[in-house]
Amino acid sequence: MLERHGDEGDFVASDTVEAFIASLKRPRAIILMVKAGDAVDGVIDELSPLLDPGDILIDAGNSLFSDTDRRVGMAAAKGLRFVGMGVSGGEQGALDGPSMMPGGDRSAYDQLAPILTQMAAQVDGDACCSYVGPGGAGHYVKMVHNGIEYADMQVIAEIYDILRTTHGLAAPDIADIFAGWRDGDLSSYLLDITIDVLRRRDDATGGSLVDLVLDEAEQKGTGRWTAMDAFRLGVVGTSTAAAVGARVLSAGKVLRLRAAGVLDGPAATVRPLDAAATDDLSAALLAARIVAFSQGFDQIAAASKEHDWRIDLKAVAALWRGGCIIRARLLDRILDAPAREDSGDPLLLAPWFRDTLAQTQHGWRRTVGMATADGVPTPVLASALAYYDGLRQERSPANLIQGLRDEFGAHGYRRAGSDDPQHTDWARSGTDAQ
Ligand code: 6PG
Questions:
Q1: How many A from CA of 330 to the centre of ligand 1?
Q2: For an engineered disulfide with 217, which of 35, 250, 274, 364 has Cβ 3.0 to 4.6 Å away?
Q3: d(Cα 359, Cα 345) in Å, to the nearest integer?
């Protein structure tokens, strides 16, 4: 490293942990970038005995927030200060400035802030880095960031699939369609890099490289954690859950190949793409992206309440505006929306979002309806639409669910117009309504 990059700064190389610790100014501040899980505890165990009270450990990996909570407490018991910092931006972000989501020991963050805010991406003069909250709050926000990342990537992939399967377009033509959307409300980093990936030629064959990439998605677990914690909290996290499910299904290629020969479905019909269908697809993409962000912010709000983290949701939107994978024009709209903390309402109900969904829902419905009829799976587009319709449904069918629960398990129900708990002997008494 020093041979290649030694002239780029004032670096000190160390061969042992002891020499490394001795080389640091006190109070020491050490950033850990190791694989989430046992490796983080291993490095902490190795470093801790050599550190002095007040020294700072910063875990900048993708650790599970509950591990960070535990480590903040353990470090404090030893007089050390622990910062769990979500970092997003990938390889490019590491060079140009990532989005940083620090949480944990506040005094440690305050001390580090002058350095971290310089390292972070900058948008309109603001650093994409601010203290998120105590304990595992920073890693929680990074986890939900990844959950939104999963959902948004899956929505883009579903639109790509419709363009490829239903409209028979080749990757470079699909890139051109996406390029036409990149300057409006759909503007986002993920859309930009989608265009790059779709345009890349494979030099060996002369075809599109993306057509040669195996269709088996991998995952390291952060999307799954997001979905699991949404279920645990009792918030709706269906966009991320559907995206995780789609990745799991994609990874089972052997089963898919077998099922393709066994399970029946509509024959693919290729239809030319007209301007109206293109508009429908962009409407569907925007609407489903709004739902993914709205559910993500709902989840952060619920977790913040449960853990008493007092996370400022606008500050989260602000630090996602640059450097991170889900940076998107939509975040400016979120910043302009009334504060979630005031109303407790999901983002979907805020004026711009409500009005945009009112406009986009028609194209969104046509897209999902058409894809369903054609047998093209749209798990995130469709589940997001079901969430939207579920949210605006004055009378849900849960009355029947309650009746069934009461019949098979005497779980009771509430009756309209009465505060008293009810139970009915559904099978054995009473008369049938006509
Ligand atoms: C980021 C990314 C980063 C990483 C994901 C990939 O914000 O920079 O989210 O953290 O790319 O962990 O996750 P999967 O391997 O699970 O897709």
A1: 20
A2: 250
A3: 20
The CA 146 to ligand 1 mean position distance, Å, reads: 6
Of 8, 18, 149, 218, catalytic: 149
Give the CATH number, domain containing residue 78: 3.40.50.720
Residue nearest to atom 2 of ligand 1 (CA): 88
pTM of the model: 0.97
Q: Which residues, in sequence order, are bridge partners of residue 56?
A: 29, 81
328 and 263 assigned to the same domain: yes
Q: Note the pLDDT of residue 138.
A: 98
pLDDT single digits (tens) 275-316:
999 999 999 999 999 999 999 999 999 999 999 999 999 999
Whole-angstrom distance, CA of residue 392 vs CA of residue 299 = 19
First to last CA, the chain: 82
User: Which one of the listed residues 78, 142, 218, 341 is annotated catalytic?
Assistant: 142
CATH code of 355's domain? 1.10.1040.10
149 is catalytic: yes
Residue with CA at minimum distance from ligand 1 atom 5: 146
Q: Which of 129, 137, 112, 135 is nearest to 29 (CA)?
A: 112
Mean pLDDT of the chain: 96
Ligand 1 contacts CB of residue 62 (under 6 A): yes
Tokens of 250: 């994609």
Q: Is 208 helix (H, G, I), strand (E, B) or coil?
A: strand
Q: Which of 149, 154, 216 should be mutated for ligand 1, with most atoms under 8 A from CB?
A: 149
In order, the DSSP letters of 181-198 are TTTSTT-BHHHHHHHHHH
> Which atom belonging to ligand 1 lies closest to the Cα atom of 326?
7
Place of tokens 């591990």: 67
What CA–CA distance (Å, rounded) separates 82 from 104? 6
Single out the residue of 388, 356, 369, 358 nearest to residue 292, CA to CA. 388
Distance CA(423)–CA(382), nearest Å, equals: 36
Domain enclosing residue 268, as ranges:
141-391
Q: Is 305 noted as a catalytic residue in this protein?
A: no
